[in-house]
Amino acid sequence: MISPVRMAVIGVGGMARYHISRILGMQTTTRIVALCEPAEPAASMAAKLFVEAGLPPPPNQPDWQKLIAEYRAELDAVLIVTPHVLHHEMAKGCLEAGLDVLVEKPMVMTADEAHSLIEARDRTGRLLVVAFQGSLSPQVRLASRLLRTGEFGRILTISGIVWQNWGGNTIDTWRQEPAISGGGFLFDTGAHLLNTVSDLAGEDFSEVAAWFARNDRPVETIAVVMGRLASGALVTFHGCGETIPSCSSEIRVFCEKAILHTGIWGETLAVQYTGDQPPTPIPVPPSLGVWEQFLEVRSSRIPNTSPPEVGLRMAKLWDAIRASAAKNGIPVPCE
Which residues in 25-56 are b (16+ Cβ under 10 Å) and which e? Predict the structure, then answer.
């Protein structure tokens, strides 16, 4: 019998507790050894999940460096679900401690930090996966392969949309503190949009033009971006974080012979060959949670389709988007 992967969760806020709830149903493959959460209310809510599952809560070490020092011999991997500004230091420290790492998106705040994590991954030989459900999903993996075969003809344009009642839901949280979050809706939930569209495009952006609206928030909650790929194909990103209670997305890849339909998390996959017929679903296995997908990558059952290079790709794209928005939409090259 294969022993369960021994892991720690660093940061146990709302998203982390969602992950923990799923992981607690995976006792044959994963054992949560310890938690790291300095905020007592969040730590208490996480401990309650274990009690409800009939399990003793693991110890909580509020200092992540002490956690690694004290529990290193008992750990194989970590899940990092902390404010964005902390991702780089924590992921690098865990890699250097000999641990495999699954880090929430966006991977880092800057391209320099992305290069640093790639260097640490290469130097330590450990696994680093970014928690982009789209990149890891069978839907987006298959869609990317189909688009590369040329079966649908060349890509002409891509349109991606994400919407959520993000602005109201994140009031008085770190997500609306620019120095900690690195951006607003488009850098948070919208990170999945930027990443999945980039996966489907399969090439670099040459330039972008962007406009942000803050709606009296400290960060952008509405954004529109136009981009040009290296091949000349055109892309639009639309993020609305001030709408009705919701969290959803749509992506359309317009090719010469077909339109591919999917979502930023790989929620669906369908193809349309004529306007007279609705999109035809493309059968794929159901997408797993990010920890399950991490385990699949770690065991070499699927390739790592969300390595730190995707974090670098997004950091470069975000830098250009932010620079253009600061210039009221003047096009900026992606370097």
Answer: ebeeebbbbbbbbeeeebbebbbebbeeeeee
